[in-house]
């Protein structure tokens, strides 16, 4: 009996040793396989960023998960699930994770407003994200901010600094942007039709209202726009092998007038971003 007991203890010991010696970056921890459902996930931080979408959704069905409301239905002949993330990267990551886990959408689209970094952008203009990056993750030095890559928690390997948006979604967005009808913007009594461009969007847990910061983000990161959720969504999607894209409409120019401008142009910017998303969804449904 003692010999048998000793055998089981010894066996358990060697099994534990063998498991503990598996490196964190081994393939069994780095590969994520996803079985996607025939559904598109749509996220926005503020109520007004998703309200226009919700008015067009048919056969609505609400589902609360961890006190976050997910609304399923049909939008432009496509099954969708829509949720409001709330402001900031942590809220965005939580909601994205729940959406991926419980709905397994084929793709995730983030829609909303942003501060313009490119000086040629004006309120109402749209930016189709080609890449998304954290601008506030890294090392703060006496005279600069050195942006560094985040890490995948399951492998401890570095993520890319710039998360690439899905190439097919970029193409669909660009095609939709050529024919979409957007709300005009009136600035200083001058009405103009917003333009649609593609470029880098950067994310931080700060509302940028500084010419110096916008110049830094433009020079160091080649950013077109800045906001507070996109890179968190992108990081979750990247780590979970989930196709995604971030769509943003400019509400201000991230300068000292940003707080004033966002109040003036927030609604039009939110609607223009949602309008492009609806056109993208329509293309996906074809």
Automatic annotation (TrEMBL):
<dbReference type="InterPro" id="IPR010049">
    <property type="entry name" value="MTA_SAH_Nsdase"/>
</dbReference>
<keyword id="KW-0028">Amino-acid biosynthesis</keyword>
<dbReference type="Pfam" id="PF01048">
    <property type="entry name" value="PNP_UDP_1"/>
</dbReference>
<keyword id="KW-0486">Methionine biosynthesis</keyword>
<comment type="pathway">
    <text>Amino-acid biosynthesis; L-methionine biosynthesis via salvage pathway; S-methyl-5-thio-alpha-D-ribose 1-phosphate from S-methyl-5'-thioadenosine (hydrolase route): step 1/2.</text>
</comment>
<keyword id="KW-0378">Hydrolase</keyword>
<dbReference type="InterPro" id="IPR035994">
    <property type="entry name" value="Nucleoside_phosphorylase_sf"/>
</dbReference>
<feature type="domain" description="Nucleoside phosphorylase">
    <location>
        <begin position="41"/>
        <end position="282"/>
    </location>
</feature>
<dbReference type="GO" id="GO:0008782">
    <property type="term" value="F:adenosylhomocysteine nucleosidase activity"/>
</dbReference>
<keyword id="KW-0326">Glycosidase</keyword>
<protein>
    <recommendedName>
        <fullName>adenosylhomocysteine nucleosidase</fullName>
        <ecNumber>3.2.2.9</ecNumber>
    </recommendedName>
</protein>
<dbReference type="InterPro" id="IPR000845">
    <property type="entry name" value="Nucleoside_phosphorylase_d"/>
</dbReference>
